[in-house]
Hints:
The chain is of the alpha/beta class and 337 residues long. The protein is built from 11 helices and 10 strands.
Amino acid sequence: MEQRILGRTGKHVSVIGLGTWQYGGDWGDVSEADALGVLGAAAEDGVTFFDTADVYGDGRSEQIIGRFLAGNAGSPVTVATKMGRRVDQIPSNYVLENFRAWNDRSRANLGVERLDLVQLHCPPTPVYSTDAVYDALDTLVSEDRIAAYGVSVETCAEALEAIKRPGVASVQIILNAFRRKPLEEVLPAAAAAGVGIIVRVPLASGLLSGKYTLDTTFASGDHRTYNRNGEAFDVGETFSGVDFADGVRAAAEFGDAVGSPDAFTGPVPPGTTTAQAAVRWVLQQPGVTTVIPGARDVAQAAQNAAAADLPPLSDAALSRIGDLYDKYFRARIHGRW
């Protein structure tokens, strides 16, 4: 699989990574055996970047990845975790003492001496412009607790603030065909600064798989049920913040666009899915380093990895996809994130 340099980490990572939020329970139940199976299958398909967080299942996701690492000594996988959501979301909690404690917990969960990459996990907006926060992160690097640090953001303004900081190695942000604002300023600024871009929610919480209908429902413990209106955290994390009904309608049109004979610049394998085309769309946006779709089973992991081998989408398809954003979403969400 194609590898790209992850910003200021200097590490090469696969263009398709693996998001592991689903192993924390917020997407329904996934057994540990199934989760380990997905991690192994992804690695076999060339995935070398796993993304997790200390709050996914209160550490369960990190612990499962730790068991994978313990059973696969010498694996080339880079693991990125996140910190900061275990406490009240006030800027005064983002201090060195807490950072050390959170990092030590993550190191224990993952079974490593040094964390590859630690990201601030969508903290309060003032945190991104606080000098003391970056001084504390630099201290963690000097103490060899972490190799590098980055940020995960909700808004483009937060990303642009973080990119200004010389120690920030990467920015994780939501980007997909239904959430396009980062293309305007964030990706060009990151590329100019040598900051890596990690793309999350590439399928708009599954909308861009094209499998949902207006009647689709989700389990009560699934964030697509309990956070539909932002009851638990930023609503932009659920369906990218778009209205579900509009998303279903737009996804059908997206499927038509990527299923047309002129959708790709070269031949595509039989059975190529709408979800794979959506991931391929992300990969061909200039400045993207890696995209981290989740996978609940081995088949999904294989399909995600195979998206890296698709030819680029054609200009005609890209134009049709761009029109969908203007038709369904721009007026409601462009100014928000």
